Amino acid sequence: MANNFLDDLGIDAATFEAAKDSTVTEAFEVLASGALPGTIESMVLYKNTFGGTNLKVDVKLDESERVLTYRADIGRTKKPTAEQVKNKQEGDINDGFVTRLKSIGLATNVDIATLKVGDATKVNSFGKECGGQFLLGCNGKPVIALVRHSVDTNKAEGEQYRDSNDIEGVTFKGSDDIDLFEAKIEKSANGTFGFKGYVKKAAANSSAPEASAEDKEKLAKMDF
Fold first, then answer.
1. Helix residue spans in 73-223 (DSSP H)
2. Distance between CA atoms of 190 and 196, rounded to whole angstroms?
3. How far apart are CA 110 and CA 137, in angstroms?
4. pTM exceeding 0.85
């Protein structure tokens, strides 16, 4: 009897049955800013390219099934001081990292101290693949995602990737955070949140004047 090809690939029947029937996706349409129901899709702790530990959180929205994340992953520690670098110590714990974890715990009604480290995975960070591990315990838990319509002010209107969606945070139904966020949307520019996206250094410095020989000499003597 011939082997099952899916078995050879390590794909069980249930996984194959649950897969979508088509690879065609709808055209991207940016969502309006608002508080939308969703679930925690995944949480990953990973090592960034500088050796620090970052947290990445993905949230799947209920209605559109769009998966969104924070505009920036957050680091566990702050940049080390000169003294800490000298003593080969890491930076102080980042308050923002603790706050993000705590807010997720409150939104999901999960004690963050009970989270478990799961399987290894990979995270793409600024075009580089970084190794990490899943955090288990909040997956599938319902939340209210505070979704932003973000606009990269470094891109011209109509330029690709100028408009995008990300989340300011997650909370629970009935939370005061929802009212605060909706008030913030009303005060924003047409419900959008501007940010300055990454600009390639070559493009950013193309019109900069050439440094003088004197400036170059001073720069060479600076102690960073």
1. 82-86, 95-108, 176-187, 201-204, 213-221
2. 18
3. 7
4. no
